Amino acid sequence: MTDSVRMSLAQVHDTARRLLLAQGFSEPHAEAIANTVTAAERDECRHHGLFRIAFYVNALKAGQASGEAEPTLTDLAPAIVRVDGHNGFSPLPLERGHAPLVERARAQGIAALAVNNALNVAALWPEVERLADDGLVAFAFVSAIPYVAPYGGIKPVFGTNPMAFAWPRPGRHPLVFDQASSMSARGEIQIRMRDGKPLEPGWAIDADGNPTTDGKAALAGAQLPFGGAKGSAIAMMVELLAGPLIGDVLSVEAGERDVAKTGAPCGGELVIAIDPTKAMPNGDLARQAEHAERLFSMILEQEGTRLPSDRRYRARERTTKEGVDVPASLHASLMELLAG
Ligand code: NDP
After folding, report:
1. pLDDT digits (tens, 9 = 90+) for 212-247
2. CATH level 2 (architecture), domain 4-182+225-280+323-330
3. Which of 90, 261, 285, 336 has the most Cβ atoms closer than 10 angstroms to its Cβ?
4. What's a Pfam family this protein contains (predicted)?
């Protein structure tokens, strides 16, 4: 028996969509989540691919998420659009907010999308890459469930709070980075525990605040921010931007809401878009792009470097032609869910 099943991206999308529909998601939600899951498989970001379907389904079954909520859009200011997810998952609200955000950013030079009351268990690069594909510089911020202790402390306060950034490169894929503010992903700790492997030193502390490489002790204690006090400050900034600024929850509050412990937090996301043609006096996009390329060249001429997102684009080229290898156990569990 082989330990993986080869699927085309069309099959990944179709499986995800049918499964979500069968579990009670509406057509627009099933389509939007299937798009997100397929993009993650395509770019070999597997923690956010088919593996995540269980998070979407479990939160729905636990009654903590709506599978049908229609997002509603409101203008908070000429350059700030709000989309209320009404307790649905974030891919659909983000999809619905995209065009208004682009339109406002082009009109005003800079604009923001405040997503409220949406469950986010996805990566952030899809929303910023999509904006950069439309020629905009973009940022996104999301808080999560409290797993991470502030620098110097021992009790979790922050989520693994990711932030993402995208820079358009005319004629090429945008430059994108998308990173958690913790040393490791939560899922990576769970995978190491499953495989009986220790954690890397520096990832976590136990409940008494002692450094640990034991997964169980880490889950009972806290994960650590990357980069000491500096990563802790970034995690705090993400909390403020995705929570209080836009009238949404802190990670601690999202954790309290997750009564069934599904690991799917309901809260806010802030997305910011800047029109680069309006960010300098003569809007000389060609000069601006050339200037940025100088930076990228200086990085890439050094051996051992690459640009963030290059790995994803290489994977994308390959998987679009060849499909993806899905672990047999995951494939079997999806088929079981599909069969009801
Ligand atoms: P990684 O540490 O894998 O990567 C972070 C960034 O660094 C990526 O942009 C990656 O680019 C880049 N990178 C990695 N190695 C190199 C290198 N050698 N040279 C240049 N750039 C490099 O990601 P994280 O574990 O921090 O986060 C994983 C994902 O989890 C993110 O997508 C994040 O949004 C998501 N997440 C979501 C949460 C939620 O609540 N929704 C919570 C926490 C995380 P590349 O992609 O090309 O490898």
Report:
1. 999 999 999 999 999 999 999 999 999 999 999 999
2. 2-Layer Sandwich (3.30)
3. 90
4. Ldh_2
